[in-house]
Every structure is written in structure tokens, then in C-alpha cells.
Amino acid sequence: MRILIISDSHGEGDLLHEICARVDADHVIHCGDFTTDRSELPTVPLTVVQGNCDWEEVPVDALWNAEEIRFYVTHGHRHQVNSSLLPIRYRAEEVGAQVACFGHSHFPVCEQDGEVLLLNPGSITSPRGYRIPTYAVLEPLGDGWVEVSFYDPLGRSVTDRGGRYCLTGGESVL
């Protein structure tokens, strides 16, 4: 299974569609700030949440399960992710999620904190504090392991982000 995780597309629907077509994921998670009409989002299996710039009626946060992995999805602004990742980690633990997907900061993050993988795909349109726009792809490997890869909007690998992570408390490999 291939899961595309994307955030902060800020009205760039054509780019969002291009990335979805290129990645050909089994599921897409959009962490908010799509800033288009919901009808303009790709017609793929999709979990989408509302960002601070969105006006469409979509959930503020969501839970999604795949291959024994529980994902907590939110935009991040309600958890003050620009200041600390601790509140979002605590929320993921409260809802029993192994992966917390969020956006808002426009900065790509992939780090394990205890048994929670904190994953911000960055922004596909306007990075902040990072040199290029990014999105992420997560692939379950079995036995609690996942691999996370980051890419720029043209599909080129971003090698200083991502890695292999054990969601059951084992050692991660960067």
C-alpha cells in the first residue's frame, strides 16, 4: 500500500492533481489548507481535514486506519505545531494513533517520538524554513515498520528527509 501525504496546497488544484496522478497512491491524506472548493479535490480515496485557510465543511481532524496502522490527521494550527510538537503527539496517543499527519508550518518533519511518528509533508506550494516544496509517501513494510519518502512537486527524491520507522517501539533507520 502506498499512501500520499500532502498539505498546504493553497489553491494549486492542478498541481495537486498532477502529484496524485504521478504517485498513484492507494490513499491520499490531505492535511488541510487546500483552499479550493471541495469539489475541486482529486477524486481518489481521500482523507481530508480543514486547515485555518479553508472554508469548506470538512472535518477538523480525522482518524484513518490502514494495514493495522492508525493515522491521526489534522492541520496542526489547533495544536500549536509552530511552537512544539508535544501537543499533537499527546493527541495522537489519546486517540491511539501510531502516525500523526499534520501541516500548517509548511516545514517537512518526520520524527518518531515514543511510539508516535510525527509526519508533516511540508507544503507543495510555499515552503517555510526549508529550501523546496515537498510532499511525503508512506509505505507500510510489515511487522510495524513503515518507510517514509519525501519528494519535490516534480517527483524528485528529497534525500535529507524520511527513513524507515518502527511503530512498535523498535529502532528506526534514517
From TrEMBL:
It is an enzyme of class 3 (hydrolase). It comes from the Bacteria. Residues 1-139 form the Calcineurin-like phosphoesterase domain. Keywords: Metal-binding. GO terms for molecular function: hydrolase activity; metal ion binding. Pfam families: Metallophos_2 (PF12850). Gene3D superfamilies: 3.60.21.10. Its EC number is 3.1.4.-. Its cofactor is a divalent metal cation. The keyword Metal-binding applies. NCBIfam families: yfcE. Belongs to the metallophosphoesterase superfamily. YfcE family. This is Phosphoesterase. It comes from Marininema mesophilum.
